[in-house]
Amino acid sequence: MANRNLEKLASIDAQLRLLVPAKVSEDDKLVEYDALLLDRFLDILQDLHGEDLRETVQACYELSAEYEGKHDAKKLSELGNVLTSLDPGDSIVVAKSFAHMLSLANLAEEVQIAYRRRNKLKKGDFADENSATTESDIEETLKRLVGDLKKSPQEVFEALKNQTVDLVLTAHPTQSVRRSLLQKHGRIRNCLTQLYAKDITPDDKQEIDEALQREIQAAFRTDEIRRTPPTPQDEMRAGMSYFHETIWKGVPKFLRRVDTALKNIGINERVPHNGPHLFNFLLGWVAIVMVIQE
């Protein structure tokens, strides 16, 4: 069983290398993360829908990778033949499988970005937010403005103080990702991060791997859109979830990074945080303007 799993991972790994050669040359962890998630998902797909459907999805994936790598028209024709031969029910499952696989690939890339940032921090490429550069691109952007475009640090600071950001929040069922699905994706991301921690024990690794499989299956079995029309209250709850899960956490962290980047170009002042913040909602029949004064 162990040898079989290694063979499957090696096969998926090879296909991924055809699809993402540029990323592989930069850091191999992305392929490792992606191969693990796809392997776990294909096992789950087989448990839910049978070995034949798993083989169909994997065949489509491999043909796509081969066409992308070599641009062989025969492979594209083979892929078309496989897809057109499917009955409507299997077509839906295959399409949903690829949508889910793309989501898993995005999650793998997010974990990879965080991994690379931590490595750079350990190597001294970036320092603590209180005293030096952050792991974001803000630092490099401000340095280019001052160094390459010859803007003064004060000009950069004044421009930042006058920036406005208009957030458009929608809870329309065809445009928003369901909150439950976002939560499952967050847990998959956390499991993947923990699974590759250096100090993990074999028992912990098995438990986290099992949790990862549960979350992948739960996400796959969650419908991406609601099948019943949401009420205005449902739409408002969906819109407010962006505040609870994204804005309240992300905005303060981002502003701290901006302050750090400014400090590194010689500005010891902070971007003012005491102005009114306007959030405009257009959620179905509900239109609300919230003014939050810090």
TrEMBL record:
Source domain of life: Eukaryota
Keywords from the UniProt entry: Cytoplasm
Gene Ontology BP terms: carbon fixation; leaf development; tricarboxylic acid cycle
The keyword Cytoplasm appears for this protein: yes
Subcellular location(s) of the protein: Cytoplasm
GO molecular function, one term: phosphoenolpyruvate carboxylase activity
Active site, renumbered: H172
Chief site of localization: cytoplasm
Gene Ontology cellular component terms for the protein in this record: apoplast; chloroplast; cytosol
Quaternary organization: Homotetramer.
Name under which the protein is recorded: Phosphoenolpyruvate carboxylase
